[in-house]
Amino acid sequence: MPAIKQKFDFSKSHKITRRSLLFALGYCLVLSTTLSSCSEAKNNAQQSPASPDSAASSNTASSNTTEKQVVRIVRSKQLTGLAVLEKQGNLDKRLESLGFKVQWPEFAAGPQQLEAINANGLDIASTAESPPVFSQAAGAPLVYLATTYPSGKAVSLLVPVNSPIKSVADLKGKKIAFQKASIGHYLLVKALEKGGLKLSDVQSVFLPPPDANVAFSQGKVDAWFIWEPFVTRNVQNKVGRVLVDGGELRDTGNFYSTSRQFYEAHPDVIKVFLEELEKAEIWTKEHPKEVAQLLAPVTQLDPPTLEIMHSKYSYGVLPIIDKTITKQQEVADKWYSLGLIPKKVDVKVGFLTPEEYAKITPAEVLANK
Fold it and tell me: What is the pTM of this model?
């Protein structure tokens, strides 16, 4: 999708951005600006820009050729095992033996990833808890594969460094930027409730991270709920300061998800992915100095800073259990109660049976229960 210049009237935060409108029309008319525009990285140009049918054909090798199939896993630019997994290259080697080549497309945030999953432009996504709910509300046949620990301290509510705002209560009537349907959106709701406010008490400014970063640095919004490494970059550059982080607010982890079609076609690939991801998570947890050196170019932060940031994350892949499903249903019910999804969502539709999970979940991950 070619880049589209976005114009946003920050004085009227309720207006739909042009980018969000394009997505809402193309993805699901009933979800008004649920997801922002598809913001793919430069390497996405390698993917087929044609229809889902042609994308599917390009992703499936003919039985009478040695051409490798392509599995597209989202690129992480955070201090995570997923980012380490790409850099170490172990997954690429294992999947090569199965006839697969790995591509690592980049997206602005979780909602854009799940838009791509639904359009057959991505195979495995890594998002917070809310994007899958919004995706399910739009009718997308996604499958939850595994989850993670919360890592709440890696998400923060920033205010300008010289802002008079001292507490969440001071946000009443203020313009707050965040990616709609993201962890920033979810934690803002929880932070406001804890501070005695409602989402309707603030002006919501729906912007994907790159655009929100510009708006925040130019003083066009009063606050921004965002994740690392945006938080540390803004603090180091003395542009913003942390008003509150998600340490005591976040009660959910991230999810790895895929499409129903990809799960049914390639459970072997998914199992190998989860095996290597868990290995990368353990290595990341145990080698903070090496991780800092490895991911400095990815995060655009210096190694000493990354070593300090390391403590903001919890590492390890978690299996899907009943408690996971129950909590995700609570998240879905919260969004419905706020009127931000058009219908009640039964999240169980996106989860597999225990027997199906047992076939794709590595023993090491199952042990993390």
Answer: 0.82
